[in-house]
Amino acid sequence: MSLPYEYTDARLHERRERVFLLLAGIFLGSLAMLNILGIARFIDMSFTIFGVTIPFIVAVGVLPYPITFLCTDFISELYGRQRAAFVVWIGLLLNVWVVFILWLGGILPPDPQLDPATGLPSPENYDWAFYRIRQLTFGAVAASMLAYLAAQFCDVFVFHFWKRLTKGKHLWLRNNGSTVVSQLVDTVAVILITHFYAHALPIDEQQALWPQLFVFIASGYIFKLVAAMLDTVPFYIGVHYLSRYLQIDPYREHRGWDGADEPSD
C-alpha cells in the first residue's frame, strides 16, 4: 500500500490519537445514549405484504446501536484488537457510571412521594420523568451490560478471526461477518434478560409469551442486520482514506502473519 504522507513522529501520533478519540467518543456517546433511552419507547414499524401484516417493533435504544459496531470495526482494523477490546471495557465502565449517577440522583433530597404500585411519583410531579427513566434504565441495564459484553467481545474476536483466516483480505467479510454474529448474540441476550430478569418489556399477558419475544428479537436483529449491510460501503471508504491519512497499513501484520516475512529490528 502506498502511503504518500510524511510527518514527524509527534505529528503523526497526534493525528492517529485524534482519530482514535473521535471513534471512541462516538462509540461511547452512542452507548450512553442507548442505555439511557433503552426501552423508554418502542417504535412500531409494522408493514403489510400481500395482505399479511408483518410485526416490526424496535426499542428506541436500538437506533444508535449499529454505529457502535462500526466504530469498533474501524478501531479493530486500524488500531488492532487490543485497543478495540480496551474501548469495550471502557464502555462497560461507562454503563456502571450511568447507573451510579441515576442511583445517586434518586436518593438525594427531596424525596418524592412514590406510588407503591408503580414505584413512581405522581405524573404531575416534576420528578416523574427522571424516576421513570431511572426505573426503565435499572430494569434493562443488567441485560444491556451482559449482552453488550458478549456482543462486543464476540464482534472483536470474530473480526480478527476472519482477518487472520483471510490474511487481511475480504474486508467486507470480516466487517459483516463479525457484526452479524455479534448482533445476533446481543439481540437474543438483551431481549431474554430484559424480560426474564428485569420484567421490563411491554408484554401482553393475554397473549402467548414466546411469539411476542420472537417479534422483539426478530425486529431488533433485522434492524441491526440491515444497518450492518448498509455500513459496508462507508466502512470500505473509511478504511481506505483513514489508512492513508493515518499512514497505517491494515494489512501489514498479515504479510508476515506466520512470522516468515516479519521484518527484524
Question: Explain this structure to me?
Answer:
The protein has one domain (9-47, 54-250): Arp2/3 complex 21 kDa subunit ARPC3 (Orthogonal Bundle), CATH 1.10.1760. It has a two-stranded antiparallel sheet. The chain has a two-stranded antiparallel ribbon with strand order 2-3. Residues 253-265 have low confidence and may be disordered. With 265 residues, the chain is mainly alpha-helical. It has helices at residues 9-37, 65-79, 81-107, 128-165, 171-196, 209-230, 232-245, 252-255, and strands at residues 42-44, 47-49, 52-54, 57-59. Helices cover 66% and strands 5% of the residues. The chain contains eight helices and four strands. The two termini are 21 Å apart. The longest helix is centred in the middle third of the chain and has 38 residues, at 128-165. α1 packs antiparallel against α2, α3 runs antiparallel to α4 and α5 (171-196) runs antiparallel to α6.
Would you kindly provide a brief summary of this structure?
The protein has helices at 9-37, 65-79, 81-107, 128-165, 171-196, 209-230, 232-245, 252-255, and strands at 42-44, 47-49, 52-54, 57-59. It is mostly helical.
Number of strands: 4
Strand arrangement, largest sheet? 1-4
Level-2 CATH architecture:
Orthogonal Bundle
Q: Give me the CATH fold name.
A: Arp2/3 complex 21 kDa subunit ARPC3
- What share of residues are in beta strands? under 5%
Attribute tags:
two-stranded antiparallel ribbon, Arp2/3 complex 21 kDa subunit ARPC3, mainly alpha, disordered C terminus, 265 residues
